[in-house]
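F.,

This is the one I mentioned.
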């Protein structure tokens, strides 16, 4: 099948992508910050008979991003699929004078996506084939602070890139899942107990649905019928209603401040 590079490939959706792609016959290049977790995931995938390369990288550091971009454009070791999955929740309020968390979020989930997708596409163009998956979120269709704004950008960017690459043999897919059971919410300091059980998804079927959509050449992948219906409603509802719903969700998920 070729070689797939997955950022944030040691946990959550990224790890599910790594496992599913390995099962499809891809060799892997895994990118993450933790060398220990990279080694553990590499051992697991090599046991399946796959070749695994690891690139310890912090995608908030531009030099690290460039190192991954150089790997994507290496003609001697071509990449057939890029999964831009690295990311994290942004729980900082928009009025907070300290914008460090926002800066890091822009670097990892916007700039790195831009740089790595461009590098992957340039590496794929001479061969006339390839696939780019950018992990976005249904949060991009509502208005829950900077995370929603960032994911709206990822989805819009992916659509724009798909337009530029039309006819080249390279597909672009924005994966827009709902709430997925991973470490994501705990790391972000988000209270998840208020989210109804019916709205939770598991990472493996989310990735299965995305890869089916990649095979079909779909640009926007929204796993499950219930989320596709909800997002259709969000796209057609009055903006004032979306803001009211977003405010209610944000309030219910916010962890209380303790001394």
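My design for it:
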């Amino acid at each position: 099948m070729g070689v797939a590079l997955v950022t944030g490939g040691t946990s959550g959706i990224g790890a599910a992508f790594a496992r599913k792609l390995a099962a499809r016959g891809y060799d892997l290049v895994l990118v993450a910050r933790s060398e220990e977790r990279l080694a553990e995931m590499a051992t697991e995938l090599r046991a399946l008979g796959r070749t695994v390369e690891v690139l310890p990288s912090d995608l908030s550091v531009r030099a690290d991003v460039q190192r991954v971009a150089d790997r994507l454009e290496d003609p001697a070791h071509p990449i057939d699929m890029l999964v831009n999955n690295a990311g994290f929740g942004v729980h900082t309020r928009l009025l907070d004078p300290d914008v460090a968390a926002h800066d890091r979020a822009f670097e990892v989930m916007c700039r790195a996506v831009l740089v790595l997708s461009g590098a992957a596409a340039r590496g794929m163009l001479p061969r006339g084939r390839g696939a780019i998956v950018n992990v976005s979120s249904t949060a991009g269709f509502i208005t829950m602070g900077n995370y929603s704004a960032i994911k709206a950008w990822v989805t819009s960017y992916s659509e724009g890139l798909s337009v530029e690459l039309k006819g080249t043999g390279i597909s672009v897919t924005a994966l827009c899942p709902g709430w997925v059971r991973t470490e994501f919410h705990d790391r972000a300091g988000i209270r998840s107990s208020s989210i109804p059980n019916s709205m939770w998804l598991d990472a493996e079927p989310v990735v299965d649905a995305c890869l089916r959509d990649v095979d079909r050449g779909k640009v926007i992948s929204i796993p499950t019928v219930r989320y596709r219906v909800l997002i259709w409603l969000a796209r057609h509802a009055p903006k004032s209603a979306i803001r009211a719903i977003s405010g209610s969700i944000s309030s219910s998920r916010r962890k209380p401040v303790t001394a």
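The chain has one domain: 2-253.

Talk soon.
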